[in-house]
């Protein structure tokens, strides 16, 4: 790397040895120990830990006054801001379940989730989110009296709803109900407990060696598990300052990295691709004088992009793997062992994995199979869906991830692709992630997604490509580039160039939409023309 990393801030010795039982407790802890320390920042507004703790108490009182009970669901249509996180932690404070939803969902999507979650109240974050404001107006939501400074509107649920009865230790009770992003087209309500989220928060802050001197740029949605647990709670746990950013724009992110003293930054690959493209357009690397730790997750990382990002910032880009059902982080690369490959790193402490064949039998080290995970990070189950829960959770506590992976002899995890996305071409297994990684090395490619297309009893490999700004790659050049890097059976038979690939708010490519496009199209020639 071109410059040395600033010294990590280090963990704080006064944290309680027994840990926390609820996700709202770290704020109360820091409000007692460092009340004036900055906690969260929304635009030009900074709230100290004492002020943030008071905001949470006010939000909790607001909910309790409206009859919210332990086990009730609280739906929050949101983008990152003070109101969103205050009500998330207020729900925890009174034992309710937070159901955060990205405000950029379409209204029918919100209505479908609301019908499934059956919340007692729906809240909308105003000010930071034009989409939330529009949804609030459509829903007839009223302003929350006494909470005007938070910027929130609400509507009580009209029909009678019942709370979910829970007993046992607080860490075993549900804190958040997260609906998966729907990359498969079938969102599910993932029940994550207090302990699940704290499991990740406790470990990720140690991995990043985070402390009160750190400033974290939180642009990943806190309605998504990566932004919620690994970034927001993983920073709050050890007393950092969190910049809550409603939406990603390359220009504003570049300004913040250069001017605001940001020390930690996490993103999905698409975010880093935009930053690299901005630097290329400016003709100079982006400045980030205090940045000491950058990480990526949420989608497969192309090795070419990793190296571009590292060259620009002069520090390692730490990769990781996880999913909503594991709260999310299963593995990550370590500060003391940065990698020069596409490894998803080593397992978090107290996490077990198995690599198994289709019959659930363990495979030898180095072989590719389905990844199973066990530990305190695994979800409680899918809400109101015992059938799906039983499909993925074994009686012994193993979560069947549906991801194909291999584990190296030195304990590094490599994600190969999705079991359901596996392409079988002429009897050979084709892993889309491997093909995507090869094509992503082309200098004109910003994003790539590979899917299979059934044809004449076989499967074709089809690549969808989003170009970098200002360039227009052609299919023939891409085919030649792939041919030099992939075995014949792995090479795409068609390249489809698209100005934008469909992605979720968290940056995952919606492959089910691409597959639907293929199904609707007629036969294609090698140039990707229908």
Write the layout of secondary structure elements.
Elements: H1 25-33, E1 38-42, E2 45-48, H2 49-65, E3 73-78, H3 82-94, E4 97-102, H4 107-117, E5 121-125, H5 130-139, E6 142-143, E7 152-156, E8 174-179, E9 189-193, H6 194-207, E10 215-218, H7 225-236, E11 241-244, H8 250-259, E12 264-267, H9 269-282, E13 293-296, H10 303-313, E14 317-322, E15 329-332, E16 346-347, E17 352-356, E18 369-374, E19 381-382, H11 386-392, E20 399-407, E21 413-418, E22 423-425, E23 428-430, H12 432-439, E24 445-455, E25 458-467, H13 475-483, E26 494-497, H14 511-520
Parallel strand pairs: 1-11, 3-4, 3-5, 10-11, 10-12, 12-13, 13-14, 25-26
Antiparallel strand pairs: 1-2, 5-7, 6-7, 8-9, 9-19, 14-15, 15-16, 17-18, 18-20, 20-21, 22-23, 24-25
Helix pairs in contact: 1-2, 2-3, 6-7, 8-9, 9-10
What does this structure look like?
This protein has 530 residues and is α/β, with parallel strands linked by helices. Among the domains are: 19-193, Rossmann fold; 422-520, ANL, C-terminal domain (GMP Synthetase, Chain A, domain 3). Helices cover 29% and strands 25% of the residues. It has 14 helices and 26 strands. The chain has helices at 25-33, 49-65, 82-94, 107-117, 130-139, 194-207, 225-236, 250-259, 269-282, 303-313, 386-392, 432-439, 475-483, 511-520, and strands at residues 38-42, 45-48, 73-78, 97-102, 121-125, 142-143, 152-156, 174-179, 189-193, 215-218, 241-244, 264-267, 293-296, 317-322, 329-332, 346-347, 352-356, 369-374, 381-382, 399-407, 413-418, 423-425, 428-430, 445-455, 458-467, 494-497. Strands 2-1-11-10-12-13-14-15-16 form a nine-stranded mixed beta sheet, sandwiched between helices. The protein has a five-stranded mixed beta sheet with strand order 4-3-5-7-6, sandwiched between helices. Strands 17-18-20-21 form a four-stranded antiparallel beta sheet. Helix 2 (49-65) crosses helix 3, helix 8 packs across helix 9 (269-282) and helix 9 packs across helix 10.
């Amino acid at each position: 790397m071109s410059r040395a990393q600033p010294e990590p801030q280090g963990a704080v010795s006064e944290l309680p040895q027994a840990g926390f039982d609820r996700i709202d407790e770290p704020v109360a802890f820091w409000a007692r120990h460092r009340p004036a320390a900055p906690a969260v920042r929304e635009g030009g507004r900074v709230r100290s830990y004492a002020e943030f703790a008071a905001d949470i108490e006010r939000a909790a009182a607001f909910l309790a006054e409206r009859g919210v009970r332990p086990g009730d669901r609280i739906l929050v249509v949101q983008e990152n801001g003070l109101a969103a996180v205050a009500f998330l932690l207020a729900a925890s404070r009174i034992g309710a379940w937070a159901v955060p939803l990205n405000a950029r969902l379409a209204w029918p999507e919100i209505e479908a989730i609301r019908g499934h979650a059956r919340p007692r109240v729906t809240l909308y974050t105003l000010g930071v989110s034009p989409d939330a404001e529009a949804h609030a107006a459509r829903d007839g939501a009223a302003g929350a009296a006494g909470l005007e400074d938070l910027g929130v509107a609400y509507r009580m649920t009209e029909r009678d709803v019942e709370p979910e009865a829970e007993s046992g230790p607080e860490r075993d009770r549900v804190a958040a109900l997260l609906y998966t992003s729907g990359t498969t087209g079938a969102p599910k309500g993932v029940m994550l407990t207090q302990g699940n989220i704290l499991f990740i928060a406790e470990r990720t802050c140690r991995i990043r060696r985070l402390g009160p001197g750190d400033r974290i740029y939180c642009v990943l949605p806190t309605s998504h598990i990566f932004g919620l647990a690994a970034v927001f709670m993983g920073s709050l746990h050890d007393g950092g300052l969190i910049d809550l950013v409603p939406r990603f724009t390359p220009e504003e992110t570049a300004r913040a990295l250069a001017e605001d003293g940001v020390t930690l930054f996490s993103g999905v690959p698409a975010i880093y691709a935009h930053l690299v493209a901005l630097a290329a357009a400016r003709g100079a690397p982006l400045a980030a004088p205090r940045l000491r730790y950058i990480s990526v997750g949420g989608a497969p990382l192309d090795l070419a992009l990793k190296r571009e990002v590292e060259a620009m910032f002069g520090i390692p880009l730490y990769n990781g793997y996880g999913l909503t059902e594991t709260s999310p982080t299963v593995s990550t690369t370590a500060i003391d062992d940065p990698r020069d490959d596409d490894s998803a790193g080593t397992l978090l402490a107290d996490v077990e994995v198995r690599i198994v064949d289709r019959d659930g039998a363990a495979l030898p080290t180095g072989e590719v199979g389905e990844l199973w995970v066990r530990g305190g990070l695994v979800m409680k189950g899918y809400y109101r869906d015992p059938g799906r829960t039983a499909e993925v959770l074994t009686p012994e506590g193993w979560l069947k991830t549906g991801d194909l992976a291999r584990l190296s002899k030195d304990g590094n995890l490599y994600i190969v692709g999705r079991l359901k996305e596996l392409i079988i071409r002429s009897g050979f297994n084709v892993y889309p992630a491997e093909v995507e990684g090869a094509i992503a090395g082309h200098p004109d490619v910003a994003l790539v997604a590979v899917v299979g297309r059934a044809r004449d009893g076989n499967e074709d490999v089809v690549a969808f490509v989003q170009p970098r700004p200002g360039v227009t790659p052609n299919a023939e050049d891409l085919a030649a580039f792939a041919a030099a890097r992939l075995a014949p059976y792995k090479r795409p038979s068609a390249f489809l160039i698209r100005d934008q690939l469909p992605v979720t708010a968290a940056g995952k490519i919606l492959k089910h939409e691409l597959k639907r496009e293929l199904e609707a199209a007629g036969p294609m020639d090698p140039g990707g023309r229908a």
